[in-house]
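User: Predict structure, ligand pyridoxal-5'-phosphate.
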Amino acid sequence: MARINWNEPRFDKEDLKEVIEVIETSYVNEGPKTKELEEKFREYLGVKHVIFTTNATAALFLALKADAIIRGIKDFEVIVPDMTMIATATAVSWAGGKVVLADVEKDRMTIDPEEIKKKISPKTTAILPVHIIGRAPDMAALQRIAQENNLTIIEDAAGALGSKNRDGRFLGTIGKVGCFSLQSNKLVTCGQGGVIVTDDDQYYEAIRRLRDFGRLSNKEFLHEEVGYNLKFNDLSAALALSQFRKLEERKELMVSQRNQYESELKSIEKIAFPRTDLNFGEIPLWVEIFAEERDELIEYLKASEIYARPCWPAIHRNPPYRNQGNNEDYPNASSISDNVLWLPNGPAISPEQITFISNKIKEFYNREKPPIKLEKIHEDKRGSIHLVEDLLPSDKEFTFLEINKGYARGGCLHSNDEHLVVVKGKIRFICGEEETIVGMGESARIPANRAHAFIALEDSVVSEWGITSEEKNHDAKDPQLRALVDEINESQNF
Ligand SMILES: Cc1ncc(COP(=O)(O)O)c(C=O)c1O
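Assistant: Predicted complex:
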């Protein structure tokens, strides 16, 4: 079979005809085609106002900025799910707000209302729920929280055009403002594009002005405030108009592709599909699965020219938002990041290809696994270090440290979280300011950038994993802890 890409758009002669028509009129700026597209979206979604912009990140930014202007504040916080594409957080940062992360529900991947409640502060002004791959969080609960705390709901419906909530309303039309994306792996695409919808006249006017250099109205050249130029263009609008005509047929295709995968893969216990309410009209824009051995599966499929995609890293794992906590604060988003992948789907994928991909997945889980290989990479009076080859996905290392009673190892810190399990014996585990005894069968986390060391209270074996060999080569040493480790190893006095 030829290469199967993860998700590709498809264009036809109708699309081409629409674009050529605009080129022939020479009016390529924002004009009549954009107006026509606005009308189509207004009618389809049943909303009062529709505004087009350059992309959904800009759409979210404009909505957040308008909210801050209307509230008359500069110092504000916005609650964002930890599991989303980085754009959601980026938009808050652009608007000058502080991103406050909340964990998500594991089986739906959407923001957990109970987690939102824990994150509200006097500075919170908005909640930014993400309708991830067409699935909504509990919007009724979010609305109650918003009302009780005077918060604005701005919906990130970037990947949810045409998807419906349990109450039958279109996602993106429930909060104060909703934002959609027309980027290339969406149901309606023109390469890049963003759509803002609202029923609120004040938000509409604020967003319209901001988007167009602060202009008072479309016809005037007076600019009341410093705005932005985030307008759309008729070339993109023409393509999006033609694509929009295919929306209903594409919605059906997404549902049938997801159903086909689910039926072909139902015998495999090591994968699970997130809970999606297809009966209520949720449209699975992409097909995601929770997969054991996720990264190995991706590599296995790649060998057959099938390109699946790992889920986004949780927002707190991205350096600009690292001050927002660690994996333990967001267990569900972290687990989703580690275990979810997106299978190829979309208008370019055929039912035969889905069968081919599903068979490869079955083949992967039924394969015979090679025996685990251990390589001794170091030995001295303290004990030895064994590297377990090819056990972990990517280039993360998995090592077994044999530590003789009375000896110590460590004194360094790494830029990523690590984990350990005591496979044999008992250790004193020093981690930053904390000290614990970890016995056989017990585990511990070594948070990123925390100096740590182990001292064997008995002959012990500790398994350790989480960072790459490259990172290990650039170990930072904590001089004080290192000195303690050296002292123990010299004296064996523990
Ligand atoms: C959840 C989410 N929010 C925002 C965006 C940003 O959309 P755009 O690429 O149109 O800026 C995306 C893009 O796919 C997304 O998936």
